[in-house]
Specification:
Layout lengths: L2 E5 L2 E3 L5 E8 L8 E6 L6 E6 L5 E3 L7 E6 L4 E6 L8 E7 L2 E2 L3 E5 L2
C-alpha cells in the first residue's frame, strides 16, 4: 500500500529556511519520479520541484536557486530544502508519487 507523509512545515520569517520531508512506504523513491507541489487557497496545486529516477532535478522558476530537492534511498524519503524563503512561498506543500498524494504540510512565511 502506497503511503506518503510530509513533515517539516511551520512558520518562518522571510529569509529563513525549512526542510520538508516526505516519508514514503509501499514503493521505492529511488526507482520513481518524485515531486513536490504547493497549493495556496483558491488555486490549483503547482509543481515546485521534481527528481527523476536517475537523479536529475527540475524546479519551478520562482524557486530556482533557493530550493533543493533530494532523496535518501535508504530512508525511502524525499526532501525539499527551502532557503531564502519569501512570503509568496506560503502554502501547503504536498509530496506526489504517480497519482498518490500525502496529506500535506503547511508552510507560512511571515514577518
Amino acid at each position: 500500500q502506497v503511503r506518503l507523509v510530509e513533515s517539516g512545515g511551520g512558520l518562518v520569517q522571510p529569509g529563513g529556511s525549512l526542510r520538508l520531508s516526505c516519508a514514503a512506504s509501499g514503493f521505492s523513491v529511488g526507482d520513481n519520479l518524485m515531486s513536490w507541489y504547493r497549493q495556496v487557497p483558491g488555486k490549483a496545486r503547482d509543481v515546485v520541484a521534481y527528481i527523476t529516477t536517475p537523479g536529475s532535478t527540475n524546479y519551478a522558476n520562482a524557486v530556482k536557486g533557493r530550493f533543493t530537492i533530494s532523496r535518501d534511498n535508504a530512508k525511502n524519503t524525499v526532501y525539499l530544502q527551502m532557503n531564502d524563503l519569501k512570503t509568496e512561498d506560503t502554502g501547503v506543500y504536498y509530496c506526489k508519487y504517480q497519482a498518490n498524494w500525502g496529506p500535506g504540510t503547511q508552510v507560512t512565511v511571515s514577518a
